[in-house]
Amino acid sequence: MGRLHPVILHFPLALLVVGSVLELFRCFRDSPFLEQAVRGLLGLGAIAALIAAGSGWLLAAHEHIRSDQRLILELHRWIGLAAAVWAVAAWWSARAWGDAKAMKLVWGRRAFALVTLVLITAAGHFGAALVWGNDWFSLNPL
User: Fold this and answer.
1) How much is the pLDDT for 29?
2) Which of 8, 40, 94, 107 has the most CB atoms in a 10 Å sphere around its CB?
3) What average pLDDT does the segment 115-121 reach?
4) CA pair distance 49, 84, nearest whole angstrom
5) CA 18, 7, 136: angle at the middle one, nearest 5?
6) Cβ proximity of 26 and 34 under 8 Å
7) What is the 3 state secondary structure string of the chain?
8) What is the average per-residue pLDDT within 31-45?
9) Is the predicted pLDDT of residue 38 greater than 80, yes or no?
């Protein structure tokens, strides 16, 4: 199951990114359709993210990790787990406050989506560093 981690993680990543972006888009144009889309995307994404995090922990437990990659692995695994847990919280906020009118709740819902997006980005960065090396995001192609 652990070796499937690279395959499993892309599905929740896409769902959570699109769900979070749509939630932020609701700042400009809100509709019942967007509310339902966000709730559905974050819900499916949160469940799939928990599965992806579990498979990642299994992969890390059974793979040889070079000593120079241990810190990157720890950052990736803990930020990835935080992203999965936070995605559940974002889903909960979308369900509980999806049609809220009080600005406190609306901004709370948006904050959960934004933090989810940031955590996914950070976990993805460190995951790519594990696979492609620390300089994978170099702007210099040479």
Assistant:
1) 93
2) 94
3) 96
4) 5
5) 80
6) yes
7) CHHHHHHHCHHHHHHHHHHHHHHHHCCCCCCHHHHHHHHHHHHHHHHHHHHHHHHHHHHHHHCCCCHHHHHHHHHHHHHHHHHHHHHHHHHHHHHHHCCCCCHHHHHHHHHHHHHHHHHHHHHHHHHHHHHHCCCCCCCCCC
8) 96
9) yes
pLDDT digits (tens, 9 = 90+) for 42-93: 999 999 999 999 999 998 888 888 888 899 999 999 999 999 999 999 999 9
Mean pLDDT (the chain) is 91
Q: How far is CA 80 from CA 1, 32, 50, 70, 73, in A?
A: 17, 31, 9, 15, 10
Q: Which two tokens stand for residue 58?
A: 């299994």
- Which position has the higher pLDDT, 67 or 113? 113
Please give the Cα distance from 119 to 122 (Å, whole number).
Answer: 5
Residue 82, classified by CB atoms within 10 Å of its CB into exposed (0-12), middle (13-18) or buried (19+), is: middle
| Ramachandran quadrant class, 66 (left: phi over 0; alpha: psi -120 to 50; beta: rest) | beta
